[in-house]
Amino acid sequence: MKIGIVCPYSWDVPGGVQFHIRDLAEHLIGLGHEVSVLAPADDETPLPPYVVSAGRAVPVPYNGSVARLNFGFLSAARVRRWLHDGTFDVIHIHEPASPSLGLLSCWAAQGPIVATFHTSNPRSRAMIAAYPILQPALEKISARIAVSEYARRTLVEHLGGDAVVIPNGVDVDFFAKAETNPDWSGQTLGFIGRIDEPRKGLPVLMAAFPKIVEACPDVRLLVAGRGDEEEAVASLPAELRERVEFLGMVSDEDKARLLRSVDVYVAPNTGGESFGIILVEALSAGAAVLASDLDAFAQVLDQGGAGDLFANENPDSLAAGAIALLRDPERRARLSASGSAHVRRFDWSTVGADILAVYETVTDGAAAVGADERVPLRTRLGFSKDTTAS
Fold first, then answer.
1. Number of domains in the chain
2. pLDDT by residue (tens digit) across 158-168?
3. Integer Cα distance of 36 and 94 in angstroms
4. pLDDT at 68 over 60
């Protein structure tokens, strides 16, 4: 199958959507499919052979964050050329409602279109206001996927229609088999994310850190991600700043080693999360996870069965949870075991098969999925190739 995938966000600025698209493309290529990904990227950025640049992106405030998007006449021309040259059997557009390549591709594409919605935003006035503009493009979509129930709810409430829920995928074994780094082990907390993006929650973790150190004097905090490191620790007493080690941007291999090595992985995100791919990666690595009790995080962590939850934006609650886990190695071991079992449902062997089933449904293909499997999928989707999603 010839598959075109559209990435809305800049390829050279790491994020959950980009990782999902990269891993999906490589999974599909590994199965023998022909895949091309169109993504914003700076001209000097080295790209995998399956990625086509749509030009440089610009930073735009979006869903409580700053997304690097690509829009305009030049981008539209590159989208049309990519679609023309690709002659794809199916186009898979991520975030088609965002002002980026997804929307441009939705306007320009013909034939079967699958769209994945990642955004969770229960109060988006902008999305509601933009619906009359988006509607003609969205009506071309053959099937919709939401990465979580919360992303599906955002779609239903703001744009109408419905979607089948298929979560983000992870190569579980890649994280499970990573080697530990002794330098990152022993009374360590881990955080991975953009340092200067408030909704990733590092300020909440910093506010909790003095109380954690008071109870666990040997604790260290390892922080991986880009941003202003001096500003990140500015709120800490001077004597505690040396307890925070900044690792900068890390490779996929080092991210896996970090998650395998720390005693507790902390996800203090404050909102705007529809899934939580980092939680799945941490569970895959066998880490004991402590996360804010966002609805999406609670769902990924099996309502606390696969990881501990603390009250969102509450440093005291975070500190109490971290102290309890640092002091209780047996609890950490139980969480690691339950998390490792729970996370298998997010492996690409399962997620990739579900996505391929959607592709085959909208293209009336039956090579990889039998008729008895496609019927319930059509029922879950609520529409087929010959109907709209609106």
1. 2
2. 777 889 999 99
3. 14
4. no
List the domain range (segments joined by +) for residue 149: 2-169+347-381
Is 218 within the bounds of a domain?
yes
Instruction: Looking at the structure, tell me whether residues 226 and 340 fall in a common domain.
Output: yes
Token output for 78: 């590159």
* Gap between the Cα atoms of 23 and 17, Å rounded: 10
Q: Please tell me whether residues 230 and 158 are part of one structural domain.
A: no
Q: How many helices, marked H, and strands, marked E, lie in the chain?
A: 16, 15
On whether both 266 and 118 belong to a single domain, the answer is: no
- Buried-exposed string 46-70: b where 16+ CB fall within 10 A, e elsewhere: eeeeebbbbbbbeeeebbebebbbb
Backbone angles phi, psi at 42, to 5 degrees: -65, 150
Same domain, 233 and 114: no
Residues 60 and 206 in one domain: no
For residues 174-201, average pLDDT: 95
CB-CB contact of 272 with 64 (8 Å): yes
**Residues 6+ positions from 211 with CB-CB distance below 8 Å:** 315, 316, 319, 323
State how far the Cα of 76 lies from the Cα of 70, in Å rounded to an integer: 9
42-56, 87-101, 287-301: which has the highest mean pLDDT? 287-301
Residues 6 and 108 in one domain: yes
State the pTM of this model. Answer: 0.83
* Sign of torsion over alpha carbons 19, 20, 25, 29: positive
Which residue in 13, 5, 8 sits closest to 37, CA to CA?
A: 5
Distance separating alpha carbons of residues 139 and 115, to the nearest angstrom: 11
Residues 6 or more apart whose CB falls under 8 angstroms from that of 335 comprise 288, 289, 306, 307, 308, 325
